[in-house]
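S.,

As promised, the 2'-deoxyadenosine-5'-diphosphate run. Input:
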Amino acid sequence: MERTFLMVKPDGVQRCLVGEVIRRLESKGFTLVGLKMLGVSKELAEAHYDVHKERPFFPGLIQFITSGPVVAMVWEGEGVIASARKIIGATNPLSAEPGTIRGDYGVTVGRNLIHGSDAPETAQNEISLWFKPEELVSWQPALTTWLYE
Ligand code: DAT
Ligand code: MG
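Predicted complex:
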Protein backbone atom coordinates (compact mmCIF):
# COMPACT_ATOMS: atom_id res chain seq x y z
CA MET A 1 0.00 0.00 0.00
CA GLU A 2 1.29 3.45 -0.93
CA ARG A 3 2.51 5.90 1.74
CA THR A 4 3.14 9.64 1.69
CA PHE A 5 4.70 12.23 3.99
CA LEU A 6 2.62 15.24 5.04
CA MET A 7 3.62 18.07 7.35
CA VAL A 8 1.45 20.78 8.86
CA LYS A 9 3.81 23.75 8.71
CA PRO A 10 4.28 26.27 11.57
CA ASP A 11 1.50 28.52 10.20
CA GLY A 12 -0.96 25.59 10.10
CA VAL A 13 -0.12 24.70 13.71
CA GLN A 14 -0.46 28.33 14.87
CA ARG A 15 -3.77 28.67 13.02
CA CYS A 16 -5.18 25.59 14.76
CA LEU A 17 -5.63 23.65 11.52
CA VAL A 18 -3.98 20.37 12.63
CA GLY A 19 -7.33 18.76 13.41
CA GLU A 20 -8.86 20.01 10.16
CA VAL A 21 -5.99 18.56 8.11
CA ILE A 22 -6.24 15.19 9.85
CA ARG A 23 -10.03 15.20 9.47
CA ARG A 24 -9.83 15.75 5.72
CA LEU A 25 -7.37 12.90 5.17
CA GLU A 26 -9.25 10.56 7.55
CA SER A 27 -12.62 11.34 5.99
CA LYS A 28 -11.25 10.66 2.52
CA GLY A 29 -10.41 7.14 3.67
CA PHE A 30 -6.67 7.28 4.18
CA THR A 31 -4.93 5.69 7.15
CA LEU A 32 -2.66 7.53 9.56
CA VAL A 33 0.42 5.40 10.26
CA GLY A 34 2.81 7.98 11.77
CA LEU A 35 2.30 11.23 13.69
CA LYS A 36 4.48 13.53 15.74
CA MET A 37 4.89 17.17 16.68
CA LEU A 38 8.42 18.53 16.61
CA GLY A 39 10.55 21.62 16.34
CA VAL A 40 12.55 21.38 13.11
CA SER A 41 16.32 21.83 13.14
CA LYS A 42 18.03 23.86 10.42
CA GLU A 43 19.74 20.65 9.24
CA LEU A 44 16.45 18.76 8.88
CA ALA A 45 14.75 21.70 7.14
CA GLU A 46 17.64 22.04 4.69
CA ALA A 47 17.69 18.30 3.97
CA HIS A 48 13.92 18.27 3.41
CA TYR A 49 14.03 21.21 1.00
CA ASP A 50 17.40 20.32 -0.56
CA VAL A 51 15.87 20.38 -4.07
CA HIS A 52 15.15 24.10 -3.61
CA LYS A 53 18.54 25.12 -2.17
CA GLU A 54 19.47 27.35 -5.14
CA ARG A 55 16.10 29.14 -5.20
CA PRO A 56 15.89 32.76 -3.99
CA PHE A 57 13.16 31.87 -1.47
CA PHE A 58 15.25 29.10 0.16
CA PRO A 59 16.64 31.10 3.15
CA GLY A 60 13.18 32.47 3.98
CA LEU A 61 11.67 29.00 3.64
CA ILE A 62 14.19 27.48 6.07
CA GLN A 63 13.68 30.38 8.49
CA PHE A 64 9.91 29.81 8.34
CA ILE A 65 9.94 26.02 8.73
CA THR A 66 12.24 26.27 11.76
CA SER A 67 10.22 29.12 13.34
CA GLY A 68 7.78 26.97 15.32
CA PRO A 69 6.50 23.45 15.81
CA VAL A 70 5.26 21.36 12.89
CA VAL A 71 3.17 18.20 12.80
CA ALA A 72 4.75 15.45 10.70
CA MET A 73 2.59 12.60 9.44
CA VAL A 74 2.69 9.51 7.29
CA TRP A 75 -0.53 8.52 5.54
CA GLU A 76 -1.29 5.26 3.76
CA GLY A 77 -3.77 4.27 1.07
CA GLU A 78 -4.27 3.53 -2.59
CA GLY A 79 -3.04 6.51 -4.63
CA VAL A 80 -2.44 8.54 -1.46
CA ILE A 81 0.55 10.51 -2.84
CA ALA A 82 -1.32 12.13 -5.74
CA SER A 83 -4.63 12.29 -3.88
CA ALA A 84 -3.13 14.11 -0.87
CA ARG A 85 -1.57 16.65 -3.26
CA LYS A 86 -5.06 17.27 -4.67
CA ILE A 87 -6.55 17.61 -1.20
CA ILE A 88 -3.75 20.08 -0.34
CA GLY A 89 -4.14 22.16 -3.52
CA ALA A 90 -1.78 24.25 -5.64
CA THR A 91 1.44 25.67 -4.16
CA ASN A 92 0.13 29.26 -4.39
CA PRO A 93 -3.01 29.38 -2.21
CA LEU A 94 -4.54 32.09 -4.41
CA SER A 95 -4.40 29.63 -7.33
CA ALA A 96 -5.55 26.67 -5.23
CA GLU A 97 -9.16 25.61 -5.79
CA PRO A 98 -11.73 26.23 -3.07
CA GLY A 99 -12.27 22.92 -1.31
CA THR A 100 -8.55 22.28 -1.04
CA ILE A 101 -6.68 22.98 2.19
CA ARG A 102 -4.56 25.77 0.69
CA GLY A 103 -7.54 27.07 -1.32
CA ASP A 104 -9.74 27.27 1.77
CA TYR A 105 -7.25 28.57 4.33
CA GLY A 106 -4.19 30.14 2.65
CA VAL A 107 -3.33 33.45 1.02
CA THR A 108 0.41 33.49 0.21
CA VAL A 109 2.87 30.92 -1.14
CA GLY A 110 5.25 31.44 1.80
CA ARG A 111 2.44 30.58 4.25
CA ASN A 112 0.74 27.69 2.48
CA LEU A 113 0.07 25.63 5.60
CA ILE A 114 1.05 22.13 4.60
CA HIS A 115 3.60 20.03 2.75
CA GLY A 116 2.90 16.83 0.82
CA SER A 117 5.31 14.55 -1.03
CA ASP A 118 5.04 14.94 -4.81
CA ALA A 119 6.03 11.47 -6.11
CA PRO A 120 6.77 7.90 -4.93
CA GLU A 121 10.53 8.46 -4.72
CA THR A 122 10.29 11.74 -2.78
CA ALA A 123 7.66 10.17 -0.50
CA GLN A 124 10.05 7.35 0.41
CA ASN A 125 12.95 9.74 0.96
CA GLU A 126 10.89 12.12 3.09
CA ILE A 127 9.36 9.35 5.20
CA SER A 128 12.81 7.98 6.05
CA LEU A 129 14.17 11.50 6.65
CA TRP A 130 11.44 12.38 9.18
CA PHE A 131 10.54 9.03 10.77
CA LYS A 132 12.40 6.06 12.19
CA PRO A 133 10.92 2.73 11.03
CA GLU A 134 9.74 1.95 14.59
CA GLU A 135 7.76 5.23 14.67
CA LEU A 136 5.45 3.94 11.93
CA VAL A 137 2.54 1.68 12.80
CA SER A 138 1.18 -0.87 10.35
CA TRP A 139 -2.44 -1.58 11.19
CA GLN A 140 -5.59 -2.79 9.50
CA PRO A 141 -8.46 -0.29 9.78
CA ALA A 142 -11.83 -1.92 10.34
CA LEU A 143 -13.26 0.22 7.52
CA THR A 144 -11.00 -1.29 4.85
CA THR A 145 -13.70 -3.50 3.33
CA TRP A 146 -16.00 -0.46 3.01
CA LEU A 147 -13.32 1.54 1.18
CA TYR A 148 -11.81 -1.05 -1.16
CA GLU A 149 -13.50 -3.69 -3.30
P1 DAT B 1 4.87 22.38 -2.93
O1 DAT B 1 4.96 22.66 -1.44
O2 DAT B 1 3.49 22.63 -3.45
O3 DAT B 1 5.41 21.03 -3.30
P2 DAT B 1 7.34 23.48 -4.05
O4 DAT B 1 7.96 22.16 -3.82
O5 DAT B 1 7.46 24.10 -5.40
O6 DAT B 1 5.77 23.48 -3.66
O7 DAT B 1 7.96 24.54 -3.02
C1 DAT B 1 8.18 24.15 -1.67
C2 DAT B 1 7.75 25.27 -0.77
O8 DAT B 1 8.60 26.42 -0.99
C3 DAT B 1 6.33 25.79 -1.02
O9 DAT B 1 5.36 25.02 -0.34
C4 DAT B 1 6.42 27.18 -0.50
C5 DAT B 1 7.83 27.60 -0.85
N1 DAT B 1 7.85 28.31 -2.12
C6 DAT B 1 7.76 27.78 -3.35
N2 DAT B 1 7.80 28.72 -4.31
C7 DAT B 1 7.94 29.89 -3.65
C8 DAT B 1 8.04 31.26 -4.05
N3 DAT B 1 8.02 31.61 -5.33
N4 DAT B 1 8.16 32.18 -3.08
C9 DAT B 1 8.19 31.86 -1.78
N5 DAT B 1 8.10 30.59 -1.33
C10 DAT B 1 7.97 29.63 -2.25
MG1 MG C 1 7.34 20.28 -3.32
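Residues 118 surround magnesium ion (ligand 2) (CB under 6 Å). Residues 18-28 form the longest helix (11 residues).

- D.
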